[in-house]
Design goal:
The structure holds three protein chains of three kinds. Chain A is mainly alpha-helical. Chain A has one domain: ABC transporter involved in vitamin B12 uptake, BtuC, CATH 1.10.3470.10. Chain A has eleven helices and four strands, in the order ααααβββααααβααα. In chain A, the strands form two sheets. Chain A has a two-stranded antiparallel sheet. Chain A has a two-stranded antiparallel sheet with strand order 2-3. The radius of gyration of chain A is 19 Å and the shape is globular. Chain B is an all-alpha fold. Chain B has one domain. Chain B has a two-stranded antiparallel ribbon with strand order 1-2. The N and C termini of chain B lie far apart (49 Å). The C terminus of chain B is likely disordered. By secondary structure, chain C is of the alpha/beta class. Chain C contains nine helices and ten strands. Chain C has a six-stranded mixed sheet, sandwiched between helices. A four-stranded antiparallel sheet of chain C has the order 2-1-4-5, with helices on one face. The radius of gyration of chain C is 18 Å and the shape is globular. The model of chain C has no long low-confidence stretch (mean pLDDT 86). Classes of the chains: A mainly alpha, B mainly alpha, C alpha/beta. Chains B and C meet through α7 and α8 of B and α2, α3 and α5 of C.
Chain lengths: 290, 289, 258
């Protein structure tokens, strides 16, 4: 049981990274990108395919993932959020169109949509405190998540650029008055969000020793859920919610049976989302400002 | 001609699901989870005819009621949230439903043979059409008339009180509440109706396909249905008809683009949203004098 | 007879900041009460707490004797509360006739047969809306006509009380005066029992309202009957601070306007 909880921590770390990516796109840029996970999946997938084909070392996957992922994210952002601009809901629908295209392209790629193997350099390395087997790669994911969270917090609250991004996202005209280029800040934030996502996707795929097409939408849903649970106010809350969900899911499916893992996961999230509107008393939900 | 007949059932079923999405879109929300209600209807209808020898019409009616009931329960919460949370919840609902369908296992002896859903192996032998000697043309006729019925029902809904109130709530809920319209109840009605419509579509689908499995109710199905409506436009019920016809008849029926159909379709959605966000047919023109 | 509206000890905080503080307030039949006060004093919050758009943290909001403090906005509307908003609000995709149709249908649903049997013709004449406006969309109408439609819709529901938030905003004085005249007429003809008006232009209130309340720091600190010139001057001077000459000017205008 304890072991499952520790494994849950690794999932929590992954969720935290995904949640942070969404925190940047939604919390800072006010964008809902339903192709986010798929862009990450596509990048890792292509990276794995190329590295497998060319026989490059394992770091190559990460490098290629970033090389593919960042331009791809910028393209998605341009298509869905710059060209489509009447309505946030339309932008969201456009990202789903992109999701469809990317996933289908992967099916038609030389990989034929089959799972791609990824070399895990930390395979079989474990640490045995108090008789528990803890996989080092899981701890690496958790460590990465915490490090990225810390860096992002520092960046957004302390650095001039981070502040500029927040101002720019809040109000483009105010930003212009302060001499901040709105477009450039949006690009920068998209790049950071994409890089965080790529790191998340790569580290997770590595721990699983492979990646398949399902990862895309799965990652998007998990990231969005973390965003809803953790809110858009603070990075610390996002990380807490992510780790909480990761552990709860693992422990929950351990209790009920591993065949029910996704059932439990989605059921838990559905229940949380369903209960949520009843936990905010006093406010009339409808029509505040739509 | 025979190709056209072959297309009718698929077109009708897709249209019914698109109508369900149209109802939700009319409430101002995007649901990517209507395939869940479609699945509920498919399993309910299939179980009734294949395991209990019910007549098709009664089975379809139960499909509608079952899906509406599920939509009503979910809608209790769903009708209170909006925007991105709404979409996220429907997305999760769809994925959750898929996991549930994998677990449905219920076998029963019918005429000396075991029938019923077999969990991950899917649900085969929904052979109502075959066992009742209903030929292709008749199948098309059944599907088309059910779709036409749904179309009329949705059209009537839009022209009467509940549909009008729904548009008002979607446009400005605070204003609607200030003239004593209950926004939550209005939306709940719409979601239940959307569920019922999707359920009927699912029931049709199960009998048309004779074999169903969880993968039939994936997110891709729901997204397509939403996309049909967005492509066609929300102006009136002809929007989903136009959008569905475009994909099913041109892209799939004529096989113009071969295996890249989804790529073309997905790109088309993006291009449409950029160029004509109000759909092929557009909505009522709003001109400023 | 119960007062149309009775507010007792209502408090409201927005994330710690006090907006309404132990507020007491009563509106009697036939009243047309103006609310004045500095920006952020709590005028619109008070309207929202009455209308249900914002729920009070504590206290009692009685409409015609019934405590509605926990009721949702649509239930309060069903009890005869009409509301117009600071910014002009109409349903963007519907024509004026459709607006009226929906509002009439909704008020009949909730009040059953007790609802007044309005016809669209009655409504149009009530607010002097030209018939050609019926087939227009909101974007095709000028602000004054939109305001007339909003007023008519609010009145359809409001047998008891109209809540009017700066209906003259964005209009010139002449147009605003026209709307105030309409509201006064609605009360005269007993279409509604009373109205509360938030308004920045004091001269309009002085001309048409029956009384004025000053909202300060989340409390209704002073009331003045519009016939009581001395009280009115006192209220205005405390609002304007030392510039009591401004108050005198407003009082002068009042005579001119009526």
């Amino acid at each position: 049981m304890l072991l499952t909880a520790v494994e849950g921590l690794a999932y929590g770390g992954l969720y935290a990274l995904l949640g942070l990516g969404f925190f940047l796109t939604y919390g800072v840029l006010r964008r809902i990108d339903l192709a986010y996970g798929t862009v990450v999946m596509t990048s890792v997938y292509l990276g794995a395919m190329m590295v497998g084909g060319l026989g490059l070392p394992w770091v190559g996957v990460l490098a290629l993932t970033l090389v593919v992922g960042i331009p791809l994210s910028l393209l998605v952002a341009y298509l869905a959020f710059v060209l489509v601009r009447q309505d946030a809901r339309f932008s969201m629908a456009a990202t789903l169109g992109i999701w469809m295209v990317l996933e289908e392209l992967m099916l038609q790629s030389p990989g034929r949509g089959r799972g791609q193997a990824i070399v895990n350099p930390l395979q079989d390395l474990s640490w045995w405190p108090w008789g528990l087997q803890i996989r080092i790669d899981h701890m690496v994911i958790l460590g990465l998540a915490l490090a990225v969270a810390g860096l992002l917090t520092r960046f957004l609250t302390r650095s001039r650029t981070g502040l500029a991004i927040r101002v720019s996202a809040y109000d483009a005209s105010v930003a212009a008055l302060l001499g901040i280029s709105h477009a450039r800040m949006m690009v920068l934030a998209t790049v950071i969000a994409s890089a965080v996502g790529c790191v998340a996707g790569w580290s997770f795929a590595m721990a699983q020793s492979g990646i398949d097409l399902h990862f895309g939408m799965w990652a998007t849903v998990k990231g969005l859920v973390i965003l809803v649970l953790g809110g858009t106010q603070s990075i610390a809350l996002i990380v807490t919610a992510a780790i909480g969900l990761g552990v709860a899911e693992r422990v929950g499916s351990e209790l009920i049976g591993s065949g029910y893992r996704d059932l439990v996961g989605y059921g838990l999230i559905l229940a949380l989302l369903a209960v949520e509107p009843f936990l905010r008393p006093g406010e009339t939900r409808f029509g505040d400002s739509r | 001609m025979s190709e056209l007949v072959a297309i009718i059932p698929m077109f009708s079923i897709s249209l019914v699901l698109a109508l369900s999405c149209y109802l939700v879109l009319k409430s101002g929300e995007i649901s990517f989870g209507q395939q869940a209600f479609f699945g509920v209807g498919a399993y309910a209808g299939g179980i009734l005819t294949a395991m209990f020898d019910w007549p098709l019409v009664a089975a379809l009616a139960v499909s509608a009621v079952a899906a509406a009931a599920v939509a009503g329960v979910i809608g209790f919460s769903l009708s209170r949230i909006s925007g991105f949370r709404f979409t996220l919840m429907t997305l999760v609902l769809g994925e959750f439903a898929k996991e549930v369908f994998v677990k449905i296992e219920w076998r029963r002896e019918v005429n000396g043979q075991a029938a019923g859903p077999e969990g991950p192996l899917g649900f085969s032998g929904i052979e109502y059409y075959y066992s009742h000697g209903i030929q292709h043309l008749a199948q098309g006729l059944i599907a088309a008339s059910v779709a036409a019925g749904c179309l009329v029902a949705v059209w009537v809904y839009g022209r009467t009180g509940p549909g009008r109130r729904l548009v008002a709530v979607a446009s400005d809920a605070t204003l609607a509440a200030s003239v004593s319209i209950d926004p939550v109840r209005t939306r709940l009605q719409a979601f239940a109706m959307a569920g019922a419509v999707a359920g009927i579509g699912g029931g049709l689908f199960a009998h048309q396909a004779t074999y169903i499995e969880a993968a039939n109710f994936s997110l891709m199905v729901g997204v397509h249905a939403v996309a049909y409506t967005l492509l066609g436009g929300l102006a009136n019920v002809l929007g989903p008809v136009a959008g569905t016809a475009f994909d099913v008849v041109f892209l799939e029926g004529l096989r113009v683009v071969g295996s890249y159909r989804m790529v073309v379709f997905g790109s088309l959605i993006v291009v449409m949203l950029i160029l004509r966000p109000r759909g092929l047919l557009g909505t009522r023109t709003r001109t400023v004098p | 007879m119960n007062p149309v509206l009775e507010i007792v000890a209502v408090c409201k905080k927005f994330s710690g900041v006090v907006a309404l503080d132990d507020l007491k307030f009563t509106i009697e039949e036939g009243e047309m009460r103006g609310l004045v006060g500095a920006n952020g004093a709590g005028k619109t919050t008070l309207l929202n707490v009455i209308g249900g758009q914002v729920m009070a943290d504590s206290g009692i909001v009685r409409i015609a004797g019934l405590d509605v403090a926990k009721f949702s906005p649509w239930r309060r509307a069903g009890l005869g509360l009409g509301r117009t908003f600071q910014e002009s609000r109409m349903w963007a995709d519907l024509t004026t006739a459709e607006h009226f149709g929906i509002a009439i249908d909704a008020s009949r649903r909730i009040a059953g047969r007790a609802a007044p049997n309005h016809a669209v013709d009655d409504i149009c004449s009530l607010v002097e809306l030209p018939k050609v406006m019926l087939e227009r969309m909101p974007a095709q109408m000028r602000l004054l006509d939109r305001r007339r439609v909003e007023l008519a819709m609010a009145t359809l529901n409001a047998s008891n009380l109209l809540l009017i938030d700066e209906i003259g905003a964005g209009l010139d004085v002449e147009e605003a005066r026209m709307l105030y005249r309409l509201i006064a007429r609605l009360i005269d003809r007993r279409c509604v029992r009373a109205a509360i008006l938030v308004e920045h232009k004091l001269e309009l209130l002085a001309a048409f309202a029956t009384g004025i309340s000053l909202i300060e720091n989340g409390k209704a600190s002073q009331h003045a009957d519009c016939k009581d010139a001395a009280r009115l001057a006192l209220l205005m001077s405390s609002m304007f601070g030392h510039r009591s000459d401004a108050a005198a000017e407003v009082l002068q205008q009042r005579k001119g306007l009526q």
